[in-house]
Design goal:
The chain has five domains: 87 residues, no CATH class; 359 residues, Calcium-transporting ATPase, transmembrane domain, CATH 1.20.1110; 119 residues, Calcium-transporting ATPase, cytoplasmic transduction domain A (Distorted Sandwich); 162 residues, HAD superfamily/HAD-like (Rossmann fold); 232 residues, Calcium-transporting ATPase, cytoplasmic domain N. 41% of the residues lie in helices and 19% in strands. It contains 37 helices and 37 strands. Strands 20, 21, 22, 25, 26, 27, 28, 29, 30 and 31 form a ten-stranded mixed β-sheet that branches. Strands 18-37-36-35-19-32-34-33 form an eight-stranded mixed β-sheet, sandwiched between helices. Strands 10-9-11-17-12-15 form a six-stranded antiparallel β-sheet, covered by helices on one side. It starts with 18 loop residues before the first strand and ends in a 22-residue tail after the last helix. Belongs to the cation transport ATPase (P-type) (TC 3.A.3) family. Type IIA subfamily. Catalyzes the hydrolysis of ATP coupled with the transport of calcium. Pfam families: Cation_ATPase (PF13246), Cation_ATPase_C (PF00689), Cation_ATPase_N (PF00690), E1-E2_ATPase (PF00122), Hydrolase_3 (PF08282). It catalyses: Ca(2+)(in) + ATP + H2O = Ca(2+)(out) + ADP + phosphate + H(+).
Length: 1090
């Protein structure tokens, strides 16, 4: 958060000598800073300030500003270099903004800067003035237009459509067939865009959904009276009162505490598991991260305990949440690896198409003046149309739509794996992911504090005997069991005296609420997460005296089950008085009345509770015995061991007080009876460890990213196997500040080994993603909070949790519906398989288009009539090519797809030997098509049986005597035979693409029935245009005889034999690229051979 700057009195002249030894005075305002500033100006309109610490006067830092406007009295507006403009700026505020030391400004200084009285608030005139100066508390939301047509291949198609349209107009053509070609092209492009729009969700929706994290109202002090106002009407300088359950309406600076403590849950911003205690005092260090700014309440966070007053210091975009908006706003979407390769292919294709078109046109310049064309200009137009037809043949019109459709089908496969893909290109990006930056809280852990250990004193007969219990369950669901030291499950935990009292104290000394949310089908908390963990513990322990308790509880509805045991204790004991938690006592107590007995229950830090205890409860028989020095030492040892395991430890105790007592005081908090210790943590998800190992096997590195402190994060990493069995984490674990202090060279080295990045802010996460991308890593970022949104958007693929915030989901490319980190592994495997299939159908379409280009080119060089009409080429490209290509996307994934390293981002779709293979296939396809055309004229019983010379001189037919009518060259039979040969040979070629190198005898058509079905459907559609008269007229075709169909099959089948030979060479020679599939060195040595 950055202070927006403070307004000093308008009559104060910042250019005068106001700053002397850390003290500045101006008319109407005065302040004393904890920093010393030196001021100088020059004719260059640059102001320079030197900043040094009072504790170290020799340390100076220069900050430059530029004068934007000034008048006779001095500077009115300055701009920090690379920062914001500050109207009538006060130097302290500007420097605080530049250095991040806004928390260092004392509360009274803030009030003086804004000219506000903490007991009266702003006046109406001040509100108007501040509103004009700083703006209202609104966040600017905007949407991007989805650019479905921003693709090179699509642009080439648009140009082709325009050229075809212009040529039709130039020739004076009329009717449907004249404009069919450009119309069909544009129709397909519109359909492709529609698929993309329907399937993808606009990622910029995140900016709108951030409104869910803004408070709607605020309790504001103005003109000496409190009133409830819309949060959007807040302005800097407003005095706001906050209390339990309140959502912070803007960035606030604490000025007054109305309770012993004030705690805020800021997990959505920082990712911290526990709530944070706030205070009026300044932080101990400068340039503090959000987590350390104890006197700042951040917009969108929730107050979970206490009450206080604060002054607004940041509104709208100038808040911590606003910085997330700005970060997302300035994040450009990166092209996916496949998109880059398709763009490269489109660029290459454009050059090839242009070259071939020019070549064909130039080769035929000598024929421009042939009499059959009616003049040189018309001859040039004729051959230009042939060149355009060649371009239509070369362009894979169906490729954009097929790629989009195949990726969309891939999203359905992933949805069955609980991976909901929001951005289609991200499907194939998964296949080359090399690093997963995973948010710890809520992703690797449940983000639900849970009691995992309980420590009680079993007996003291022969010295203290400590009994430890473990508790299962990692969520707020009141489901779990208690196990003893030997791992044996306790059927009725409440029958144990200490566990009975522990459940009672956990339930009554508690201000939180556990409830069931039917909309989300999950249990949720209201209040402090540690207190809710105690309520859940009380439910797991159960009630005493009920042998059938487990079965009885199972009969309850989820709503009733949420707090059944807690309600029992609350009905048995009536709360009379509460002593809230304070930092000096580190405990809280509650006085409860029960029939003829009153009891005070206490919980708090172990060192504070144990110091006040004189007795303890024995678990063996429920007796109360004196707390000896030996027992005290043993308990202290146990809670220190809990701390070593990074468990948050609390001690619980009770005390019987005289019946009828209505209040208690701090003096009553002594002579307590110790019950036990509880250790809790935000537990890791049970499936994460196996998922981490699977990522290592797949050559994917996982970096844990968290806002928690280093020791807690390292403990979680040990539990999930991120560090394996290593003891020394040097070079693997860094805090954000430690990483930033490293020289650039060492930062690059650290990024290659880093496993844990702790104590981070949202900007650090985005910085990490950028740094990894600069090292050519393909980065996936997982997260669930608002704080993750900028990094999710910046990453190559952002993965949000299903239970995460709407902001995180909207900024992501993929959402894990089951919040299961392990689902990422399955999604990566599917992504790799989809990419492999995508390569197969791209190669299939390329070979088909090569065939069409060869067909047109050979026909032009030989001088025979047009083999195929443009509309026929469109039909082949869009329908007969598109359906099998899409079906190829259903090829099964290889069994070892997750044992290979991630493919390189620069890996070409088609290169080397593979390109040669498909060039050979394409050349045969083209020659077979031309051969079918020539066969009808020369050999067919239904044809004219011309000689080759007569066929190649068809243009001079009208100028010489012939035994056949010249109209024979307009017969639809030869082009129909050629088109059918092209269709059938491509159907056989589709079968070739069931596998890159395996024979059809090994990978049979039965392995992909979708492909078989698409071939059958394609042939049915082709039959329709041949034998349904209106369609036959539209596509300039005619029905074929059996003899003609036989010729088609003879010319088409050899493509199977040719590809089988090429596959055999690939399998048995060194011509093909061989990729060794092996486990990566990321695996520990002791596991590499297992």
């Amino acid at each position: 958060m950055r202070l927006p700057g403070f307004v000093d009195d308008a009559r104060a002249d910042p250019c005068s000598e106001l700053i002397r030894d850390g003290e500045a005075e101006g008319e109407g305002s005065s302040w004393r800073s904890r920093r010393r500033y030196k001021f100088s100006s020059s004719s260059s309109s640059l102001l320079e300030f030197q900043l040094n610490s009072l504790s170290n006067p020799s340390t100076f830092r220069k900050i430059s500003y530029k004068v934007l406007s000034q008048n006779g009295r001095g500077i009115r507006q300055i701009r920090i270099r690379g920062g914001y403009a500050f109207p009538l700026v006060n130097l302290v505020a500007a420097i605080a903004h530049q250095t991040g030391d806004d928390g260092f400004v004392l509360s009274m200084q803030v009030l003086d800067f804004f000219g506000v009285d903490s007991t009266k608030g702003l006046s109406d005139s001040q509100v108007d003035h501040h509103s004009r100066l700083y703006g209202r508390n609104g966040t600017p939301f905007w949407k991007l237009v989805l650019k479905q047509f921003d693709d090179l291949l699509v642009k080439i198609l648009i140009v082709a459509a325009i050229v075809s349209f212009v040529l039709a107009l130039a020739n004076g053509e009329t009717g449907l067939t004249a404009f069919l070609e450009p119309f069909v092209i544009l129709l397909i492009l519109a359909a492709n865009a529609a698929v993309g729009v329907i399937t993808e969700t606009n990622a910029e929706k995140a900016l709108e959904e951030l409104r869910a994290y803004q408070a709607n109202i605020a309790t504001v002090l103005r003109n000496g009276c409190f009133s409830i106002l819309p949060a959007t009407e807040l302005v800097p300088g407003d005095i706001v009162e906050v209390a339990v359950g309140c959502k912070i309406p803007a960035d606030l600076r604490m000025i007054e505490m109305s309770s012993n403590e004030l705690r805020v849950d800021q997990a959505i911003l920082t990712g911290e598991s526990c709530s944070v205690e706030k205070d009026v005092d300044c932080p101990l260090t400068t340039n503090a991260v959000y987590q350390d700014k104890k006197n700042i309440l951040f917009s969108g966070t929730d107050v979970v305990a206490g009450r206080g007053r604060a002054v607004v210091v940041g509104v709208g975009s100038n808040t911590a949440m606003g910085s997330i908006h700005d970060s997302m706003l300035h994040t450009d979407d990166e092209a996916t690896p496949l998109k880059k390769k398709l763009d490269e292919f489109g660029s290459f294709l454009a050059k090839v198409i242009a070259g071939i078109c020019v070549l064909v046109w130039v080769v035929n310049i000598g024929h421009f003046s042939d009499p059959s064309h009616g003049g040189f200009f018309k001859g040039a137009i004729h051959y230009f149309k042939i060149a355009v037809a060649l371009a239509v043949a070369a362009i894979p019109e169906g490729l954009p739509a097929v790629v989009t459709t195949c990726l969309a089908l891939g999203t359905k496969k992933m949805a069955r794996l609980n991976a909901i893909v929001r951005s289609l290109p991200s499907v194939e990006t998964l296949g080359c992911t090399t690093v997963i930056c995973s948010d710890k809280t809520g992703t690797l852990t449940t983000n639900m504090m849970s009691v995992s250990k309980i420590c009680v004193v079993q007996s003291t007969d022969h010295g203290p005997v400590i009994n430890e219990f473990s508790v299962s369950g990692t969520t707020y669901a009141p489901e779990g069991t208690v196990f003893d030291n030997n791992g044996q499950q306790l059927d009725f935990p409440a029958q144990s005296p200490c566990l009975h009292h522990l459940a009672m104290c956990s339930s009554l000394c508690n201000d939180s609420i556990l409830q069931y949310n039917p909309d989300k089908d999950s249990y949720e908390k209201i209040g402090e997460s540690t207190e809710v963990a105690l309520r859940v513990l009380a439910e797991k322990v159960g009630l005493p005296g009920f042998d059938s308790m487990p079965s009885a509880l199972n009969m309850l509805s989820k709503h009733e089950r949420a707090a059944y045991c807690n309600h029992y204790w609350e009905n048995q004991f009536k709360k009379v008085y509460v002593l809230e938690f304070t930092r000096d006592r580190k405990m809280m107590s509650v006085l409860c009345s029960h029939k003829q007995m009153d009891v005070m229950f206490s919980k708090g830090a172990p060192e504070s509770i144990i110091a006040r205890c004189t007795k303890l409860l024995c678990n063996s028989d429920g007796s109360v015995v004196p707390l000896t020095a030996a027992s005290r030492a043993e308990l202290e040892s146990r809670f220190h061991s809990f701390g070593d395991e990074t468990l948050r430890c609390l001690a619980l105790a009770f005390k019987t007080v005289p019946h009828g007592q209505q209040t208690i005081s701090y003096d009553n908090e002594n002579d307590l009876t110790f019950i036990g210790l509880v250790g809790m943590l935000d537990p890791p998800r049970k499936e994460v460890r196996d998922a981490m190992l699977a990522c290592m096997t797949a050559g994917i590195r996982v970096i844990v990213v968290t806002g928690d402190n280093k020791s807690t994060a390292e403990s979680i990493c040990r539990k999930i196997g991120a560090f394996d069995n290593l003891v020394d984490f040097s070079g693997l674990s860094y805090t954000a500040s430690e990483f930033e202090r490293l020289p650039a060279v060492q930062q690059n080295l650290a990024l290659r080994r880093m496993t844990l990045f702790s104590r981070v802010e949202p900007s650090h996460k985005r910085m990490l993603v950028e740094a990894l991308q600069n090292q050519n890593e393909v980065v996936a970022m997982t997260g669930d909070g608002v704080n993750d949104a900028p990094a999710l958007k910046k990453a190559d693929i952002g993965i949000a949790m299903g239970s995460g915030t709407a902001v995180a989901k909207s900024a992501s490319d993929m959402v894990l519906a089951d919040d299961n980190f392990a689902s990422i592994v399955a999604a990566v495997a599917e992504g790799r398989a989809i990419y492999n299939n995508t390569k197969q159908f791209i190669r299939y379409m390329i070979s088909s288009n090569i065939g069409e280009v060869v067909c047109i080119f050979v026909a032009a060089v030989l001088g025979i009539p047009d083999t195929l009409a443009p509309v026929q080429l469109l039909w082949v490209n869009l329908v007969t090519d598109g359906l099998p290509a899409t079906a190829i996307g259903f090829n099964k994934q290889d069994s070892d797809v997750m044992k290979a390293k991630p493919r390189k981002v620069g890996e070409a779709v088609v290169t080397g030997w593979l390109f040669f293979r498909y060039l050979v296939i394409g050349v045969y396809v083209g020659l077979a098509t031309v051969a079918g055309f020539i066969w009808w004229f020369v050999y067919s019983e239904g044809g004219p049986k011309l000689t080759y010379s007569e066929l190649m001189n068809f243009e001079t037919c009208a100028l010489r005597e012939t035994s056949y009518p010249c109209s024979i060259f307009e017969d639809r039979h030869p082009s129909t035979v050629a088109m059918t040969v092209l269709v059938v040979v491509e159907m056989f070629n589709a079968l070739n693409n069931l596998s890159e190198n395996q024979s059809l005898l090994v990978i049979t058509p039965r392995s992909n029935l979708w492909l078989v079905g698409s071939i059958i459907l394609t042939m049915v559609l082709h039959m329709l245009i041949l034998y349904v008269h209106p369609l036959a007229v539209l596509f300039s075709v005619t029905p074929l005889s059996w003899a003609e169909w036989t010729a088609v099959l003879y010319l088409s089948f050899p493509v199977i034999i040719i590809d089988e030979v090429l596959k055999f060479l690939s399998r048995n020679t060194g011509l093909r690229f061989r990729f060794r599939l092996r486990k990566t060195d990321l695996l520990p040595k002791d596991r590499r051979d297992k």
